[in-house]
Amino acid sequence: MENFVLHLxxxxxxxxxxxxxxxxxxxxxxxxxxVVGGVKHMLAYDxxxxxxxxxxxxxxxxxxxxxxxxGIWETIRIFLGETPGSTFILVIILLSPVWAxxxxxxxxxxxxxx
Length: 114
Fold this sequence. Notes:
This protein is an all-alpha fold. Helix content is 78%, strand content 0%. It has one domain. The protein has 5 helices and no strands. The longest helix has 33 residues, at 12-44. The protein starts with a helix and ends in a 6-residue tail after the last helix. The model has no long low-confidence stretch (mean pLDDT 82).
């Protein structure tokens, strides 16, 4: 246990990366379950198009989760000084699932998210 604490104190970014990789892997699995789950119905065309809605939602949420995790990882690396600040544009694009709905609600006049 002492060895783990020493390694954690010496290089915390490694373990933060491991944790974020775990969440990103969950996002990939969620994305794949949405895509693969809908393939059977698309090929057979035995259901209505509304039946595939939850598969599309799963795929999109998995993709958003991966984008947000990568954006968080790059933000941490920018704050720690491991990457140049010019990658902040990439962070803004990757975190768009977080700020885009808020911006859309703000522009349409439905503020507050209720």
